[in-house]
Specification:
- By secondary structure, the protein is α/β, with parallel strands linked by helices.
- It folds into 2 domains: about 60 residues, no CATH class; about 250 residues, Rossmann fold.
- Helix 5 runs parallel beside helix 7, helix 6 packs across helix 7 and helix 7 packs parallel to helix 8.
- The N terminus is likely disordered.
- The structure holds adenosine-5'-triphosphate (ATP).
- The site of adenosine-5'-triphosphate (ATP) has 12 residues, from strand 1, strand 2 and helix 2.
- Pfam families: ABC_tran.
- Keywords: ATP-binding, DNA-binding, Nucleotide-binding, Transport.
Length: about 325
């Protein structure tokens, strides 16, 4: 490895030595490449959301990039105020970003009109909120709550779902899948918090959404009940193929998914991927987790605070391009 202290210019290391023709070729090749997020179900591209309250601006999202592929079950984590709920409200179609781009299942979340937004919220995304009371209508039974979205879709829905028998069958199927079939004729106040949340997931799944969004769905529940709720999300993901995004503070939930994305100061900062590895000698399976930092489209990287603080890195760092990695050193001038 070269001694970083002798390096005078590092930012041009990647391009130094390239001829003008080679640089032009690289730019042309990049232009012809696939669009960002072309194969993703959810694409957030440099998403910005600024709130103004009493003349004060709050930048809740500061250029957030996120791609979620169809069929994923993933968790979003982050400190209070990092922008998780703001992102969920945008993905749910309840709020509109200030700038950037966001699309879900081909719907452009910035440009869609009122009518399109309504059908997006009714048919493309389902959501489950933390407050159990917010998810269900108190004067309807569990079965009636699940049937409501099907009735609201009415004539716009698929032909095979228009008859009363088909609707009843779907309600039964979803309540069964969520393990709350016995609650079908009960109103919310006659159910436990956990049962209410599982009925809420059934409601959210009624119109076969592409994406199920949940904002702290286990926040009001004890850990055993939280596990049951998480198992219900997993069943929705595995048996119905629904893409699931869960915002959670719950470490158990976050560690049970294959992908956990952390948000910091309105941007995605790190990501943990978990995969099953089989020991070639013993044949034993184990779950291996690996943490990654996010590199945004402009090449910006957020270094973990504990790393930069440990080495006293501030304002400026030195970079060195090596054959298979980039070195980062504290500025010693
Ligand atoms: N409607 C609003 N008006 C003004 N500021 C807002 C509004 N909604 C959110 N904010 C601010 O935006 C930032 C991000 O808030 P957000 O609710 O998205 O964070 P969060 O990560 O979900 O936090 P928590 O985990 O506490 O729910 C915070 O500083 C918050 O005060």
């Amino acid at each position: 490895m070269t001694d970083p202290t002798t390096t005078t210019s590092t930012t041009t290391a990647a391009s130094s030595g390239a001829t003008l023709e080679q640089l032009e070729e690289r730019v042309t090749a990049r232009r012809g490449g696939p669009e960002y997020g072309h194969d993703a179900l959810i694409t957030c591209d440099r998403l910005v959301r600024i709130f103004s309250a009493d003349g004060v601006e709050v930048q809740a999202l500061q250029g957030l990039d996120l791609l979620v592929r169809g069929g994923e079950l993933m968790a979003l984590v982050g400190a209070s105020g990092s922008g998780k709920s703001t992102l969920m409200n945008i993905l749910a179609g309840l709020d509109v970003p200030t700038a950037g781009a966001a699309s879900v299942a081909g719907f452009d979340l910035l440009s869609m009109g009122a009518k399109e937004r309504l059908s997006y919220r009714r048919d493309v995304v389902g959501f489950v909120w933390q407050q159990t009371a917010r998810n269900l209508l108190p004067y309807l039974t569990a079965a009636q709550n699940v049937a409501l979205p099907l009735q609201l879709r009415g004539r716009d829905g698929p032909r095979e779902m228009r008859g009363r028998a088909a609707k009843t069958a779907r309600v039964e199927l979803l309540l069964g899948l969520m393990g709350v079939a016995e609650c079908r004729d009960r109103r919310p106040h006659q159910m436990s918090g956990g049962q209410q949340q599982r009925v809420a997931i059934a409601v959210a799944l009624a119109n076969e959404p592409s994406v199920l969004l949940a904002d702290e769905p286990t926040g009001e529940l004890d850990s055993h009940t939280a596990e049951q709720i998480f198992a219900a999300f997993r069943r929705a993901n595995e048996e119905l193929g629904t893409t699931v995004v869960i915002v959670t503070h719950d470490q158990t939930v976050a560690s049970e998914v294959r992908r956990t994305v952390a948000i910091r100061d309105g941007r995605t900062s790190t990501e943990i991927l978990r995969r099953t590895e089989v020991d070639s000698a013993t044949g034993q399976e184990s779950l291996v987790a690996r943490e990654y930092a996010m590199l945004d489209r402009a090449g910006r990287l957020q270094l973990p605070a504990e790393y930069t603080e440990a080495l006293g890195m501030r304002d400026r760092v030195m970079l060195e391009l090596e054959r298979d990695h980039i070195g980062v050193w504290p500025d010693d001038t």
